[in-house]
## 1
Amino acid sequence: MRSLLVLPVLVALVAGATLDFNHYWTAQEINAYLDELASDFPTLASVVNVGTSTEGRPIRALRVSKGNVANRPLVIVESGLRAREWISPMSASYILHEIVEHYYEFENILDNVNFLIVPLVNPDGYEFSRTPNNRMWVKSRSVNGNGCFGTDLARNFGYLWNTVGGSSDPCSDSFVGTGAFSTPETAALRNFIQANSANLVLYLSIQSADQMVLYPFSHSAMTNPSNVAELRSLANSVAQTLTNQNGRIFTVGGAGLLQPAASGSSIDYVAGTFQPDLVYTLETGAGGTTGYDVPEAQMAAYLSETTYGFLTMAEYVANNK
């Protein structure tokens, strides 16, 4: 595998002269990039409409399928659930930059695996976090009343919803919502996963910034999927790959063990409902003053690092599923 871009100054993308990985993209720029990839690589990539956010923004995915062969093992990647985690949608976008624009470097993967990648599940919260004094905003932007807004989308999925780790306070950053899938964002993602579950082998949620490779379940430190040995083995390989890039140490384990137990996560929903072989959260490297505000000048190293971790998972699927 060739070396990915790790320099702080990157050339502009071939498919979009106005887009580069020197800055954090807006939701509009992310969508424009998906359109450009689909236009420039029509035999490999196509845009899928996932749904619409509370404020009317599109939630979109890119389907990557060499020759549009439908029955390959499928990998779904979801990112941008939480607004302040800007490195998450940028990581998904950079993954697409690699596997689509440099498809010829990943023939074994693309000959054997299809991908559906949703770079930005929470466009409203993401855009709000880009406005002055709102950089650490977490939630969506649904109107809760009494001057409170938003739901923590990572607590709104319908598997053991609202049983541990969330808040029923509409003003809390960890507000679980008024019911399972009560937000249009999580409901849209649910429908998208259901519609594509037949060949689903790997589900990956890209979040930040705890530097971890986590497998289900989030709701309990004591509950693991039946193939936990396989999950742990691959997670260890991914963590080693991640650490090898820039020396940041990544921890491996059950999500409910390494983080405070919390129900309603996307990985619990997928693992508990559809039971694909492989389900993970990849918590990216931390940077900046809060962990979430990786400086733009340092972003390239983080994107390359996360992409190498993803490719380790993708190669495993290509060779073993």
## 2
Amino acid sequence: MPPAGSLTAEQLSFFDANGYLVLEPFSSEEDVRALRERMAELVAGIGGSNSTGSCEHHRMEMDDFYFKSGENISFFYEDKAFGDDGCLKQPKELSIRLVGHALHEHDPVFKKFSSSENISSIFSSLEYKRPVIIQSRYIFKQPGIGAEAIPHQDNTYLHTEPPSCIGLWLALEDATVSNGCLWAIPRSHKNGLKTQMIKDESGTYFDRTVPSYNQKEFVPLEVKSGGLVIIHGDLVHKSFENLSPTSRHAYVLHVVETKGCEWSKGNWLQRKIAPEALYVS
């Protein structure tokens, strides 16, 4: 049996036409459980066994802590998890927003999954020659407070010339309309990149006005636990705030081509070593 990421001609045609592809199922229950249990261990190790009330948690902000997270495993918290005193209102495991951005490099469980044949076969199917995982994220989408992800294109933030970013979004719990599944505008990748975020000596900014989108054009991408969504770097996608009592865990990889593509010097994520040096055959 071929790896789960070996795409058929029909699947490749759908992805080319629509800018996304849902592979369901993709990962086994064992793989999903291993990733979730390992993340629970990582979260349990933050600041002792129970850090409710601690005021030393990092919010999701584009600052120096965030910019340095590209080469380590860093923890970010939901803004709504904090009280007026600046401290967490509930246990850390119900307050954390995401963990990033180098789980695939520094944690053995996440590295094993990220470098698996199931993952690498996707990029063989897409005819990438030297793909590199440039970023990994574990997203919690906490019940009741999980923040929205505004409409965006991944190439805006992880840019190569020419653009080559592909997102892999693995559901670690059922992702539904009620708990904040992905939404996308089919075929929007055909319209190209609308804006690029630049980080330089003057700060962080967008090179063009961030566009607005017709909300009626978005369609939900509901997926069962273990399913994978492949996302073209120019596809416009988003997720709503999670107001439900159910979390929506996901593991996300962003991959770029390094053969014939140059990593943009204005990207927020700048590695101490060149991206192409991270390639693993």
